[in-house]
Structure formats: C-alpha cells, structure tokens
Amino acid sequence: DTEVTQTPKHLVMGMTNKKSLKCEQHMGHRAMYWYKQKAKKPPELMFVYSYEKLSINESVPSRFSPECPNSSLLNLHLHALQPEDSALYLCASSQPGGLYEQYFGPGTRLTVT
Amino acid sequence: QKEVEQNSGPLSVPEGAIASLNCTYSDRGSQSFFWYRQYSGKSPELIMSIYSNGDKEDGRFTAQLNKASQYVSLLIRDSQPSDSATYLCAVKNAGNMLTFGGGTRLMVKP
Fold it and tell me: For a surface tag, which of A76, A77, B24, B90 has the fewest beta carbons within 10 Å of its beta carbon?
C-alpha cells in the first residue's frame, strides 16, 4: 500500500481565516514532508519531519505552522495567508535517508481570497 | 547550489515511438534518482527509481543512470497518448531532501 491521503481536496479561505490541512499515511514511514507547488513549477519543499521531529524548515513564513501529532499524521496550520499563497499543497512520506522512495498524496488545492 | 536540470519541452512524439527524457544534476554526492509523472492538476506519481549505474527496466519504462557524467534519463517505449504529462526528475542526497528539476512536458500525438 503506497497511499498518502490528504484532506480537504479543495479549500477556499479568506486572508483572516485560520484553517488546517491534514495528511495521513499508513506505510510505516518515519519521514513526512510538506511541499507547495505553483502552476508549471516543480514542488517546492516547505518542511520535513523525521521521527516526528521537525528537521527542515525551508525559511517558510510563520503564517504556515506544521505539526506532526504522531508517525502517521501531519498537519499544516494556516493563518493570515496572502493571495500569493494560493497553490497546490502536497504531502509526501518516505523512510528517512537518501535511499528511499518518496510518495506524494493527492494534494490540497488552496485558494486565498 | 545543488541543481537538477531538465529541458522544459514540450517534447512531442508520435504514438508508438520512443520518448527520451533527460536530466543532469550537479551534486556528486547524490545517492538516489527518481522519475515522477505529473498530470495537469494532479500530484506527482513515482514511476521509476534508480540507484546504481546502468539501466533499470519496468514495463515500457527504462531509467538510465551515469554517475560519472551526472546524467539520468527515462525512456518510454511504445508511447501512448495517456503518457502525455510532465515528467519530473528528482535527486536525493544522504539526507531527506529531494531536489527536483523543472520538469519536461511530454506530448504524445495519436
């Protein structure tokens, strides 16, 4: 089973709203990732959790706040976003380390109005 | 700056032909190499991984790796219109970070 699930599929939020994106995997992976992807661009890494600890934060603005409640779940809390934050947000998982394949979820299409 | 370079395309091939997608990378410490397929509006789907020099075949797909030349390629035999997508080359070093190329858009014409 190589499935990563994400909810919601689509999200429209105003600039003053607070919302959360959720990601779940049941592959026993111990590394989980958030990416942001704009149209016609490759995925851009935002955060990496390894063994439930934040290991990489790619200088992401504080209006994005990640959380890893356990080894299967990853959340991305959103607050005071800007219209330029509209994008496809992708969750991925893998085993930690350089030799493991990374699998992506279906993504959440976020629109900030 | 660790870079992965791909020709953005579009690469147009007729149905039934071989599509050849290429990728170069700058980090000699890279350990693993991946090809993802991404349809418009969808998420990347892993189609091939390769770790050592040479060829790796899976159905109609063949990945080729040449670490000395820092070059990875993907061959798609008997291309079908359903293969039309953007193909992302991705490279991983000893850590957890994937570095993506910009992607090559493939168009297979019936």
Answer: A77
